[in-house]
Design a protein that fits this description.
This protein is 43% helix and 11% strand. It is α/β, with parallel strands linked by helices. α2 crosses α5 and α8 runs parallel beside α13. The longest helix has 19 residues.
């Protein structure tokens, strides 16, 4: 406690601290005094990670559209970027929808409001966003949002022109995006930090080559997405494009491709926060199944998990070992559980299912529907009882299933996975 007080005093005696005292604090007090006439709300956006640059402003726009976090008085909501925006196109789209002003002007006031909250306990009143009660709160509502970030007509024309001129892709052509997570981005942005705890979230991109070839034969162009990647994604097929390592990669196309593809496959990384906003059909391969959200056009798959005896771990056992919500390496190591990447065959069958059933609406057989229902019956039974889901269930009620689960994985593995 004493150490914390000393650190607070030192911080206030720094240049940043003095700006809070001499400018931020008086301004914050004035804002509080006039709040019954005009409620001025300020918030910073973590702009150096694309997921956070996308998701909190998107949630704010959804809340504004639906009059959530309205205090019955006129308000002026303003934002600042805490860091240099990681993507210029998203920043440009946000500036059209929300009020963004310089950090040096707003941050001292924002920090002063946080310090005043120690006494007044009312910080939420002065924030534009009603804070999420759980990690995915409001995210499942984003496909319903009609007044969120969007492309201008001239940007759509630019995107179509760049696809034609750079990749030979016409407006009628189909294309999909693969976002395959690895550590390269974080190591590049934060060279002095260790991110080994995220290691199990990665998947070898070469496992996706066969799936990409199958999609090419089905008439799709395939874009391997990303900004910095440790491995190349090379084939002799001109329709399979290692966009992440291409000279043509740019901030605009990162967003345009993701928002206009026929479907998107992600191993869960920041850029995929864009997908519910544009209601993009998506394949999700998470480390922890609880992170996969429920959308009607989502197809979810999984890694295989082995115990110390190389015995495969069932869905029920993942819940019992408290791993269904975990995504750090040490959590699995402490439980003596080892995740295994999906095989090329599993991934190939997965993209075929997406193309045939989700995109082209081929009906599932009764056997396939029964397996899918059995997976979600077991999953929902344990999810609704899991202490990690208590807050979500309190606000949303019991899990409402909309997504499909990888049917070929269930066919091949139901004897042990669903036991």
């Amino acid at each position: 406690m004493i150490k914390h007080i000393i650190n607070e005093i030192r911080s206030l005696l720094s240049f940043k601290g003095l700006t809070i005292i001499l400018y931020g604090l008086p301004t914050a007090l004035i804002i509080r005094i006039i709040s019954k006439i005009l409620l001025i709300r300020i918030m910073g956006v973590n702009a150096e990670r694309i997921g956070e640059l996308i998701i909190n402003p998107a949630i704010y726009l959804y809340q504004k559209e639906n009059k959530i976090n309205s205090h019955g008085t006129r308000s002026w909501d303003i934002f600042f970027m805490k860091d240099k925006p990681i993507n210029k196109q998203i920043f440009k789209m946000l500036k059209r929808e929300i009020n963004i002003y310089p950090k040096f002007f707003l941050e001292p006031v924002f920090e002063a409001q946080k310090k005043l909250n120690i006494y007044f306990k009312d910080l939420n009143k002065y924030l534009p966003i009603e804070q999420r009660k759980f990690k995915f709160h409001y995210i499942d509502k984003l496909p319903e949002s009609k007044k969120n970030i969007k492309f201008l007509k001239k940007e759509i024309i630019r995107g179509e022109r760049e696809l034609l001129n750079k990749f030979g892709i016409h407006k009628k052509d189909k294309f999909i995006c693969l976002l395959i997570r690895d550590q390269a981005f974080l190591k590049k942005i934060y060279p002095n930090l260790n991110f080994d705890h995220h290691e199990y979230r990665n998947i070898d991109p070469l496992n996706f080559i066969d799936a990409a070839k199958v999609l090419s034969k089905k008439g799709y162009y395939v874009f391997r997405m990303g900004k910095f990647q440790s491995k190349k994604f090379e084939t002799s097929d001109p329709k399979i494009i290692d966009y992440a390592n291409s000279d043509y990669r740019n901030d605009f196309l990162d967003i345009y491709l993701s928002a206009h593809c026929n479907f998107f496959l992600t191993t869960m990384s920041g850029l995929d926060n864009l997908l519910p906003i544009f209601n993009i059909p998506t394949i999700v391969i998470p480390l922890n199944l609880a992170i996969a959200r429920q959308y009607k056009n989502y197809l979810i798959s999984t890694k295989t998990f082995l115990d110390p005896n190389n015995k495969k771990v069932s869905l029920k056992e993942l819940f019992e070992k408290n791993l269904i919500f975990r995504q750090k390496k040490e959590d699995f190591d402490n439980a003596n559980i080892r995740p295994i990447d999906p095989s090329p065959d599993q991934l190939t069958k997965l993209v075929i299912e997406m193309d045939e059933h989700i995109i082209n609406s081929k009906p599932y057989t009764k056997e396939e529907n029964d397996l899918n229902n059995e997976f979600w019956r077991i999953y929902s039974h344990y999810y609704n009882k899991d202490k990690n889901a208590n807050i979500e269930i309190k606000f949303n009620g019991q899990l409402k299933v909309s997504s499909r689960f990888d049917i070929n994985f269930l066919k091949d593995n139901h004897n042990w996975f669903l036991k």
